[in-house]
Amino acid sequence: MTTQASTPLPNGVTLQDIDGGANYYCSHGFTYACNAGWDNASFFPIGAWLTPLGSQADINRWKDLGLNTAFAISNPEGTNLPLIKSNGLNVVLQNGEISRFSNIGSETVGINSCDECGDYAGAVTTPLSTTFKCTAGWSFLVD
C-alpha cells in the first residue's frame, strides 16, 4: 500500500508500508515484542551494544539518553533483567550467552543468533557461502 507523506517528497519518491505490515510482530505471534509496543508507529528500537544494565543508575542513564533496547549485554551475571523489565526497557540477547541468565522474561524480545558471522576479509576474495561460520539474523521470541 502506497501512502502519502505529510510533507512533499521529491518527484518520483513514494512511501510504502514496511515489509510484513504495520502489525508485523503482533500478527506473527511475537508476543513479547508485540506486548512491548514494537508495532507502535511511534516506537523505534534505539540502544547500545554490549553495555551493562545492572542497577537503577544504569537504567536511569539509558532513559536520560532516550535508549529503549539493549542489544546483547556485557555482564549477564551482573544484569538485573527484572529491573530492566520494570523500567519498560527491552533486551535482545546474544544466542551464545542465554544460559548465563537465570531469569529471562518478557523484557527479552529477541535473540541475536550470531555476531560477526563469517570472515569479512575472506568474503572479499571468496564466495560468502564459503566464509559464513554461523547463521546471521534476529529471532523474536514467541510466547
Notes on the structure:
This protein has helices spanning 24-27, 31-35, 56-65, 81-86, 120-125, and strands at 2-3, 15-16, 49-51, 69-73, 90-94, 108-112, 138-140. It is α/β, with parallel strands linked by helices. It has a five-stranded mixed beta sheet. It has a two-stranded antiparallel ribbon with strand order 1-2. The radius of gyration is 18 Å and the shape is globular.
Which strands sit side by side, in order, in the main sheet?
Answer: 3-4-5-6-7
- The proportion of residues forming helix, as a percent range, comes to 10-25%
Task: Bin the strand percentage.
Answer: 15-25%
| Average pLDDT for all residues | 81
Write the layout of secondary structure elements.
Blueprint (H helix, E strand, L loop, with lengths): L1 E2 L11 E2 L7 H4 L3 H5 L13 E3 L4 H10 L3 E5 L7 H6 L3 E5 L13 E5 L7 H6 L12 E3 L3
Parallel strand pairs: 3-4, 4-5, 5-6
Antiparallel strand pairs: 1-2, 6-7
